[in-house]
Amino acid sequence: MSTDDRSSYLETGAGDGIEGADRIDRIRTVLGREETWAEPPADLLEDILRETGRNVTPLPTRSPRRSHPGMRVAAILALVLVGLILILGNGEVEEEGTMVAMEGTVLAPAARGQAMVRETPSGWYIRLEVRGLPPAPEGSYYEGWLWREGEGVSIGTFHMRSTEPVALWAGVSPSDYPVVHITLQDEGEGPAPSDRLMMSGTMPDG
Questions:
Q1: Global confidence as pTM
Q2: Cα-based distances in Å from 137 to 72, 95, 142, 158
């Protein structure tokens, strides 16, 4: 999805299949608030940086002369962007990983999303973002799998009753198990994957 598509969606809210639409909607909400554009306190930026644990360098003292309107707008926008970073990412910068495009099967044709796979010292962290997958019915749940040639390793379970990203973990290498599956499981039916495959995606080559 191009940057222009996301920018257009941020401005108008119109368009289908926009990646990260839930995040963009949250940004649109913040930008639409009157208080977002209020005159910020002089020490707001230092307070925000201090809350995030960033090193705070005192800002130079300015003379009382009237500031240029463009400079004031730029300062306000900078504060807004810092605030959005806090809202969407808790002040942390998400490290890049390998993106797996996820598509729904005939059981969930409207489902789509992405799984971002990143290696850590504890294993492979998989951040799953999904749209169009309904919440798991009562008595059931979704389960993620890394898959290869008829065998899979579970990477976690979830019920999808919110729009928040799902955190999954793998103890095996996605290079060895390059397919990501999402199945619908019934409670009490044991650990084996069901035949109800809801979504699937494959690690890109290389």
A1: 0.56
A2: 51, 33, 10, 12
